[in-house]
């Protein structure tokens, strides 16, 4: 069930399709960015349930497609389910959307409804911002992705394209259900994968703990499950042992963030670098805003730094 009424836009409008959109910082950040960029400040949230009925997704996409002043949308959480339910509504999909079977960006151009999967770009930019590419070759560190959804898959796509010495030596992926793991395996099977990948069915946090325990010193652990934001909890128990000199990165930037609390409890003893999802948030939104409004927004440099400052100020 859509918890937001889909009424025709009275002015050029940008949409956020998620679960709890009203709680997102983007509701304050986007208008501030819009004033700086010279675009419409109108942003509207559309809340759907996790893994909602396909008819709900078709209704949302049909509204965006046919409402004249609705310019496009960023999609979180529902990226895979939305495209599966409404693929026939799109006239054009970018190569990543086709490869990953998801859309995180819905836009209109030349009478076409267009779908993009921006996560390989935005997750890659964020990953590279946390550690320079040379780190991975110098340390031989590994990566553990807790969760096999669209964001995790997108990051693996980015990493598979990095040259030797600028990518993790191995990737571990865990997930509570086998379906997502199999979907990831299917995508990887069609690629030239220079990084060895191990997939683990882990329906319990204790099983995730066991996978994290396998990691080499200096490795990165990512919470890509949505737990802590879209649903309560953490994919790990308090007994988890993070890798010494490692990195703990939560794709979430808001919510209970229990995963980050667990990492902080070991930060001093393990010399952990801890990152939330704020930089990912900034890159992810700017990539989609650029597409929907047909802008050229740099991903680094003074203008990007200015947009980061605007976001940080608006978030307060």
List keywords for this structure.
316 residues, alpha/beta, Rossmann fold, six-stranded mixed sheet
Tell me what you see in this structure.
With 316 residues, this protein is α/β, with parallel strands linked by helices. It has 2 domains: 13-117 and 279-315, Rossmann fold, CATH 3.40.50; 121-276, NAD(P)-binding Rossmann-like Domain (Rossmann fold, 3-Layer(aba) Sandwich). 41% of the residues lie in helices and 17% in strands. The chain contains 13 helices and 12 strands. It has helices spanning 26-37, 54-66, 79-86, 95-100, 119-130, 133-139, 150-160, 178-189, 205-212, 258-264, 267-270, 278-292, 302-315; strands at residues 13-18, 42-47, 70-75, 92-93, 105-109, 112-116, 143-146, 171-175, 197-201, 220-223, 247-250, 273-275. It has a 6-stranded mixed beta sheet with strand order 2-1-3-5-6-4, with helices on both faces. Strands 9-8-7-10-11-12 form a 6-stranded parallel beta sheet, sandwiched between helices. A hairpin with a 2-residue loop joins strand 5 and strand 6 (112-116). Helix 1 (26-37) crosses helix 13 (302-315), helix 2 (54-66) packs across helix 3 (79-86) and helix 5 packs across helix 7 (150-160). The longest helix has 15 residues, at 278-292. The mean pLDDT is 94.
Average pLDDT rating:
94
Hey, roughly how much beta strand do the residues contain?
15-25%
Work out the number of β strands.
12
Tally the helices. 13
Described by strand count, sense and barrel closure, the largest sheet is: 6 strands, mixed
Assign the CATH superfamily of the largest domain: NAD(P)-binding Rossmann-like Domain
Counted up, domains total 2
Percent of residues in helices: 40-55%
Specify the structural class. Answer: alpha/beta
Low-confidence stretches: none
- The end-to-end span amounts to 32 Å
